[in-house]
Design goal:
Layout (H helix, E strand, L loop, with lengths): L5 E6 L9 H10 L5 E6 L8 H10 L7 H11 L18 E6 L4 H11 L4 E5 L3 H4 L7 H14 L2 E4 L2 H7 L5 E3 L23 E6 L6 H11 L5 E6 L7 H9 L3 E2 L4 H8 L4 E5 L7 H6 L3 H7 L5 E4 L5 H8 L5 E2 L4 H12 L2 H17 L3 H21 L1
Parallel strand pairs: 1-2, 1-3, 3-4, 4-5, 5-6, 7-8, 7-10, 8-9, 10-11, 11-12
């Protein structure tokens, strides 16, 4: 007899979609899974009601000088605009779990809905939302209090990394569940090197907002080393216009590319760079988030250079797993030195690839992570039925 299908009601500001990091992790776990009956709520409702009209009115503040206050009002309202668009009844004959991401305001709607219908609630902590929200500084303590209350109220808290779990503190049922990669891509870009090429290409792809200054400094430093090519692909770098134009012409800063072209470009890398910000104001975010790009890059079977403060999640991951291609100095020259040492040794490259693929297959294997997720949900659903 096949295992029972579980109804998962997703009520979340972050929804399962094949787009950016958070949504794509949900998409890989939830969409088209044979053991899940999936329902998704959290987008702007199609049916107009008094509350939805108020929400849209608040949203109009974003278009004027009071934009930051719209996030404040939404946070204070705690997603109540969505309550009347949710199911009024839940079939008690089917095991049902409510799932949300601790981001935005719909997570509070999910918690209310779960309590109202006596359902277990799973809360996924993918980043430290109070530090991300675009609100005046005086309101951040309120957001943090709500964030921590959400954690304590969760029947199952899924933490993206150890740093997140540590920062949130003790909990009766908190588990670290790292991002899940595309399970069909492990080793897809692997290519053994037997000779040292004349140009060693290191690729970065991702946001050039927060990580833009680091990548700019690294690219500028690399210009003194013609044997190295650092390429970056990302939107809206806050760089000097002349530098943007020059790097675009030299093929060091690349524009958006369709998925197939993007994947082909990734496979041309000799190594990947994974930066995490050194700014002290962002230390907690760097400790409590985990760069999904690290896993996406690692599965292609190329060396990774992890660059960030010694307590950030990516460096901790590297050190725990004995991965030595790390730089914990903010100085881009130190990164260049690490890249040059790697570029000059085929043996070092093979060792790095072997270690990376071993970690992906053993501890970050998407099949195992998906199985862990299913087991966690089934155990939670089973306990709730007994209660």
């Amino acid at each position: 007899m096949s295992a029972e299908k579980i109804r998962i009601i997703v009520i979340s500001s972050v929804r399962p979609e094949p787009t950016s990091a958070g949504p794509i992790v949900l998409h890989r776990h939830l969409v088209s899974q044979p053991w899940i009956d999936l329902e998704i709520y959290g987008a702007e409702p199609g049916r107009r009601t008094f509350r939805s009209l108020i929400r849209r009115g608040i949203g109009q503040l974003k278009k004027i000088a009071l934009g930051r206050w719209s996030e404040v009002l939404w946070s204070l309202w705690k997603g109540r605009w969505l309550d009347e668009h949710l199911p009024r009844e839940v079939d008690p004959s089917q095991t049902t779990v409510v799932l949300t991401v601790a981001h935005g305001d719909a997570c509070h709607t999910a918690q209310r809905f779960a309590r109202r219908h006596h359902l277990p609630v799973v809360v996924w902590f993918q980043d430290w939302w109070p530090d991300l929200a675009d609100v005046p500084r005086c309101f951040r303590p309120l957001l943090e209090r709500h964030f921590r209350e959400l954690y304590q109220g969760a029947d199952l808290a899924l933490c993206i990394c150890e740093g997140m779990k540590e920062e949130l503190g003790p909990h009766r049922n908190a588990v670290v569940l790292p991002p899940v990669s595309d399970d069909g891509q492990i080793g897809a870009g692997k290519e053994e090197k037997n000779i040292i090429s004349s140009e060693f290409k290191v690729i970065y792809s991702g946001t050039l907002g927060e990580y833009g200054p680091m990548m700019e400094s690294l690219i500028r430093e690399s210009l003194n080393h013609p044997e190295l090519l650092i390429q970056a692909r990302g939107a809206n770098p806050e760089w000097d216009r002349e530098f943007i134009e020059a790097m675009t012409q030299e093929g060091r800063l690349l524009p958006f590319a369709p998925r197939d072209e993007f994947n082909d470009w990734l496979r041309t890398a000799d190594a990947f760079i994974v930066p995490m910000v050194f700014d002290p104001k962002m230390r907690r975010r760097m400790r409590t988030s985990f760069p999904s790009k690290l896993i996406e890059f690692a599965q292609l079977g190329k060396p990774l250079i992890v660059w960030g403060p010694d307590d950030c999640s990516a460096i901790r991951w590297a050190h725990v797993n004995g991965y030595h291609l790390t730089v914990t100095s903010e100085d881009p020259e130190k990164v260049i030195q690490e890249i040059k040492m790697l570029a000059e040794s085929c043996d070092a490259q093979r060792i790095a690839v072997t270690k990376t693929l071993q970690e992906i297959r053993e501890n970050l294997n998407p099949r195992i992570i998906k199985e862990d997720f299913e087991n966690l949900i089934r155990n939670l659903g089973s306990r709730s039925r007994k209660d």
